[in-house]
């Protein structure tokens, strides 16, 4: 027994020492011991743990080496949606941001300037000081659970120390320092492998590797910049980050609290030059209102907080030669010109192509064959051509003229009035349009058919198995198995996934049809107003434009979609296959289980995807009662971001169920379209 106790104590001591050494090395950048000593202690721990399984701890420092077992990521809803920041490119826009806050708040405030790290966002949850999970941004609402990968990043503490809240989320940016990235590429070059294009893509790709032992080999790092939770230690963002640092989390040493707009400008100017000397990439500065209570007053738009803004540094530019222009046809038939360039190095990547967007841009640039062009790379993956160096043009060079026929199916291109793009009108027979529509149909936000990607669609199309989206529902396992790359298991999986998609609600089916100008939001509006495909199909122009936010352009596009006989057949086939083409609203309203009758709700805090009034209205529509204060009669407290601590405390005392934004929306969604 004594011996067991000694072993346990030794394991505890080793874990503590290794965590501390790790913290000094990776978080504080102040190594306290030699690598040799670290490795010696780690080997001792690994040996003891191997021989004493009863002391296994998934958060032991020995677990940072990752596991060789491949895992699929589970998608998990974020407790707080992961929004992005609105971007700005000039000091003028920063001044406008400042003035907006000044005008809205009418009270003095300070701002925090931070570096905008160029990597991949990661949301960590710590419960009782232990790393519980790590999610990628995903689509902002749901992210991939990459906890095992995050655990291999040494600057992410597995356990916290000090006086931390029992449950909170902290967000940061995982990135590859330039040195680490270069070393990775050097090794790839030595093995004759293709080089990674840039640190940012490689960092976000690394987080998504399915084998955490592989992730452990990559020199990833992470800075934390945003804390969320009900019991945060302070009311100022900068103080919260300072507290986070005291618990062992790596925060940026380069942030600054600014009192005036001038100080913000100075910070921008300073880092615009000094960024070249940083050991990692940044693509701008983030400016945040420091007082969290004031942040709450400013609130959010649908996409980003009103209390923060990103200032993006000017994109890097260089010049190169235009080799040719090629044309791509998208799923809507829009033809996009793409410039093929003499390859050049730009912002750490090799650039070979640049988007020219549309015919007007080519004309505006007065682009000629063989021109020397200036190319810029901003945040976008595809760089832009921003100008032509006319002095370098050959006198014999001919102007680039936009094609007149579809490069894929030779149909004469058409252009609608007021639109910049040329379209191939042969929508039902032009291969990239057919394939593009099928790809859109199966995509995550539409029918969410997993297991089918662009390549498989290509294969199915080439083999004559699918010609439109309704053909998907005729596919059989036997047809799929003989195709290259597809085994029995994936064939079965595909057929199952396709079948499952028959439960997708009508608004997403409508979106999936890919009617031009009918995005996710418009699809919801149409379903809400018309309720069934039959009603939408029969709606007149006047009836369509009578719907809030549906203008003539959208209405005409809907009419034209349904007047096309081939589309009518596709829709009819889909109906016959049993897809949902009616709003399920009615059914659920009569269903007692989904009724909020007799339930009392209190809402508190800010919601990022819905306004408070809208939320109240929806709860009431479903029969729920709203109350402004917590009492024994309250059934649910709906907690938004930064909700009042008093409300939370009384809800906890009265044992009232606390639900977050996602949960209430899930409940309500049953009755939404
Ligand atoms: S704060 C509610 N601070 O930039 C928004 N973001 O476009 C909270 N990023 O998704 C984000 N450095 O991945 C914040 N110091 C910083 C940042 C930062 C980089 C990234 C982050 C975010 C994106 C916003």
Layout of secondary structure:
Layout: H1 2-27, H2 35-51, E1 75-77, E2 87-88, H3 91-105, E3 111-117, E4 120-127, E5 130-136, E6 142-144, H4 147-150, E7 167-175, H5 178-190, H6 199-207, H7 212-216, E8 221-228, H8 237-246, E9 256-258, H9 261-274, E10 282-289, H10 292-298, E11 308-312, E12 316-329, E13 334-346, E14 349-355, H11 359-365, E15 372-377, E16 384-388, E17 422-423, H12 431-442, H13 454-462, H14 477-480, H15 488-500, H16 506-512, H17 520-530, H18 533-538, H19 541-545, H20 552-563, H21 565-576, H22 585-589, E18 600-604, H23 612-621, E19 625-626, E20 636-639, H24 645-653, E21 657-660, H25 661-669
Parallel strand pairs: 2-11, 18-19, 18-20, 20-21
Antiparallel strand pairs: 1-6, 3-9, 3-10, 4-5, 4-7, 7-8, 10-11, 12-13, 12-15, 13-14, 13-17, 15-16
Helix pairs in contact: 1-2, 16-17
The structure holds 2-(butylsulfanyl)adenosine.
Question: What does this protein look like?
Answer:
Helix content is 37%, strand content 19%. It contains 25 helices and 21 strands. Strands 12, 13, 14, 15, 16 and 17 form a 6-stranded antiparallel sheet that branches. A 5-stranded mixed sheet has the order 2-11-10-3-9. A hairpin with a 6-residue loop joins β15 and β16. α1 packs antiparallel against α2 and α16 (506-512) packs across α17 (520-530). The longest helix is centred in the N-terminal third of the chain and has 26 residues, at 2-27. The protein is globular, with a radius of gyration of 28 Å. 2-(butylsulfanyl)adenosine (IVH) binds at residues 83-85, 114, 116-117, 121, 173, 225-226, 286, 305, 308, 310.
């Amino acid at each position: 027994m004594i011996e067991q106790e000694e072993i346990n104590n030794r394991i505890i001591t080793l874990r503590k020492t290794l965590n501390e050494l790790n913290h000094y090395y990776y978080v504080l950048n102040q190594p306290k011991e030699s690598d040799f000593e670290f490795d010696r202690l780690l080997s001792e721990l690994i040996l003891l743990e191997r021989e004493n399984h009863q002391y296994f701890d998934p958060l032991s420092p020995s677990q940072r080496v990752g596991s060789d077992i491949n895992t699929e990521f589970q998608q998990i809803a974020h407790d707080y949606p992961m929004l992005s920041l609105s971007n700005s490119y000039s000091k003028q826009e920063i001044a406008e941001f400042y003035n907006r806050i000044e005008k809205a708040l009418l009270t003095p405030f300070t701002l925090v300037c931070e570096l905008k790290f160029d990597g991949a966002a990661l949301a960590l949850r710590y419960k009782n000081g232990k790393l519980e999970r790590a999610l990628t941004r995903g689509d902002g609402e749901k992210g991939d659970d990459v906890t095992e990968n995050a655990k291999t990043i040494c600057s992410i503490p597995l356990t916290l120390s000090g006086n931390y809240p029992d449950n909170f989320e902290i967000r940061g940016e995982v990135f590859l320092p330039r040195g680490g990235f270069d070393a990775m590429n050097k090794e790839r070059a030595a093995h004759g492998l293709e080089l990674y294009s840039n640190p940012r893509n490689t960092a976000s790709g690394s987080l998504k590797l399915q084998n955490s032992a592989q992730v452990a080999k990559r020199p990833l790092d992470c800075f934390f910049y945003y804390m969320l939770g009900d019991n945060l230690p302070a009311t100022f963002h900068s103080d919260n980050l300072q507290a986070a640092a005291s618990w062992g989390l790596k925060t940026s040493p380069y942030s600054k609290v600014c009192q005036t707009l001038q100080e913000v400008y100075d910070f921008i100017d300073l880092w615009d030059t000094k960024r070249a000397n940083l050991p990692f990439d940044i693509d701008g500065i983030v400016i945040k209102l420091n007082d969290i209570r004031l942040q709450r007053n400013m609130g959010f738009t649908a996409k980003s907080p009103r209390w923060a803004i990103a200032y993006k540094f000017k994109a890097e530019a260089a010049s190169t030669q235009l080799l040719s222009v090629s044309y791509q046809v998208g799923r809507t038939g829009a033809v996009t010109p793409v410039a093929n360039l003499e390859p050049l190095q730009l912002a750490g990547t090799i650039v070979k192509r640049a988007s020219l967007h549309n015919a007007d841009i080519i004309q505006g640039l007065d682009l000629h064959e063989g021109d020397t062009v200036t190319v810029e790379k901003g945040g976008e993956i595809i760089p832009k051509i921003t100008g032509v160096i006319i002095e370098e043009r050959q006198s014999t060079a001919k102007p680039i003229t936009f094609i007149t026929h579809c490069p894929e199916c030779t149909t004469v291109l058409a252009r609608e009035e007021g639109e910049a793009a040329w379209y191939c009108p042969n929508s039902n027979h032009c291969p990239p349009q057919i394939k593009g529509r099928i790809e859109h149909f199966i995509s995550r936000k539409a029918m969410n058919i997993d297991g089918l990607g662009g390549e498989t669609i290509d294969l199915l199309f080439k083999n004559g198995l699918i010609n439109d989206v309704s053909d998907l529902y005729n596919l059989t396992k036997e047809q799929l198995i003989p195709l290259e790359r597809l085994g029995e298991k994936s064939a079965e999986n595909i057929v199952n996934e396709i079948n499952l998609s028959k439960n997708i609600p009508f608004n997403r089916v409508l979106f999936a049809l890919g009617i031009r100008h009918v995005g996710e939001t418009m699809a919801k509006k149409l379903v809400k107003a018309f309720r069934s495909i039959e009603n939408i199909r029969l709606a007149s122009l006047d009836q369509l434009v009578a719907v809030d936010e549906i203008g003539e352009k959208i209405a005409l596009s809907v009419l034209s979609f349904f007047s096309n006989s081939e589309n009518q057949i596709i829709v009819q086939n889909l109906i016959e296959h049993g897809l949902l083409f009616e709003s399920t609203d009615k059914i659920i309203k009569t269903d007692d289980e989904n009724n909020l009758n007799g339930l009392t709700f209190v809402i508190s805090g800010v919601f990022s995807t819905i306004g408070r009034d809208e939320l109240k209205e929806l709860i009431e529509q479903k029969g729920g009662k709203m109350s402004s204060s917590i009492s024994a009669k309250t059934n649910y407290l709906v907690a938004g971001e930064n909700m009042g601590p008093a409300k939370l405390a009384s809800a906890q005392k009265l044992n009232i169920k606390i639900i977050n934004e996602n949960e209430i929306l899930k409940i309500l969604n049953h009755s939404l379209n």
